[in-house]
Amino acid sequence: MDHSELLATLAGIVGEAQVITAAHDIEPYVNDWRRMFGAPAICAVRPANTAEVSAVVRACAAARVAIVPQGGNTGLAGGGVPLGDAPQVVLSLARLNRIRDVDAVGLTMLVEAGVVLQEAQLAATDAGLLLPISFGAQGSARVGGVISTNAGGVNVLRYGMTRQSVLGLEVVLADGSVVDGLRRLHKDNAGYDWKQIFIGSEGTLGIVTAAVLRLVPKPTQRVTALLAVADPAAALALLARARVSLGDCITAFELISGKSLAIVADHIGRASPLAAAPWFVLIEASSSLAGLRDAVEEVLGAALEAEEATDGVLAESESQANDLWSLREHITDAEKAAGPSVKHDVSVPVADIPAFLEAAAAAVAAAHEGAWVNAFGHVGDGNIHFNVVIPPAMEPHAVNHTVHEIVAGFGGSISAEHGIGQYRTGELETYKSAPEKALQHLLKSALDPAGRLNPGKVLFASPKRS
Ligand code: MLT
Ligand code: ZN
Fold this sequence. Notes:
Blueprint: H1 4-14, E1 19-20, H2 23-30, E2 43-45, H3 50-62, E3 66-70, E4 88-92, E5 99-103, E6 108-112, H4 117-126, E7 129-130, H5 143-148, H6 156-159, E8 166-172, E9 178-181, H7 195-198, E10 207-214, E11 216-217, E12 221-229, H8 232-246, E13 250-257, H9 258-268, E14 279-287, H10 292-305, E15 311-314, H11 318-329, H12 331-338, E16 341-342, E17 345-347, H13 353-367, E18 372-378, E19 383-389, H14 396-409, H15 425-431, H16 434-447
Parallel strand pairs: 2-4, 3-4
Antiparallel strand pairs: 1-2, 5-6, 6-10, 7-11, 8-9, 8-10, 12-14, 12-15, 13-14, 13-18, 16-19, 17-19, 18-19
Helix pairs in contact: 1-3, 8-10, 9-12, 13-14
The chain binds D-malate (MLT) and zinc ion.
């Protein structure tokens, strides 16, 4: 089909330089960073503000063309890149990149969708505050994508998912209309809390263009330690002990398999400061009250004595703490270098994590010879990345099925924090109940009746495009 008329209209809205069509230039917009997902698009279009986003949406609607909203394109489920089933335009939010204000009294910040998460974090830090959303891709993920996927990360057990940090939202709807809910309010019970529908809906119901985020006072002390533990049950015993003494000063509690740290050592050429062990825990505590380090030392000493931990190292400086974190944050890159992997971003009730890990590892070993497990995750909130690295010829869906059946047996979720994107639509169809699916389709058809916003993402079968 000839889309020259649409291309000319888009160029009229955003300027010719911001409508990208050349094969080389469009490549990073139409493929995800792991090169697992991608399909051609008519163009990538880069509006500079909400009014331009709205005009682009109207132009695409008039041309009956679908839109794939895109932030930093750091997702793991292919939600931000096209699927090959429709004429579509990638709408990049990258140029909506202003931090409009930081309110140190009201503990809020107003940011546009294209602001890189790390830049928003730094702006909060400059005001002595903390934006409590943190994960490996924060140097390139953009706020609109973080909100649209309700991203999780390493501090969820203390501060909750991204949803808990969003106070106000501005969205562009499928017909191009703009809904401005950019209120800097910590309490607002006036009617339906409609912004929740857009948070985590992966651009299938509307396009997030700006948000008011909730900030918290920045803790003045941070204590980080890496511990070796015999097994996941010991890690949970350690978590329970730490909770009694440190309460909600625990800001991260990550479980890492020995195998995960081994592939990181191969990949970055830097090993863990501890000897090899079956499992490790990376724990971080933060507080502005004096005495945090002594309290953490006391807990870890008691845990070693009780043999919940078998070895440990406490970071002596900010740079040592960062080194420990960088081992954790390189796991995904190391896994990518190790070969094709089948990801499982699952959650189960926290107490069931040891039984889940045992059952899932046994099932993979029994059914998929030659595959190996790279397990790690945010154990404090029940979220395990149970990734299976497979020989190139192995069929990935059978591996998914093996793991997700075990997850279902524990009443767990097949996507704890990465979302559904285009990667997990089939499984969502399998594991969600019929009434839940009907409700999701009801929302989709109410807000995007023509099925033009990010078609084929989240929901297995979107409404027919007209
Ligand atoms: C992480 O926690 O590092 C990512 O969410 C996990 C992944 O790459 O599977
Ligand atoms: Zn994660």
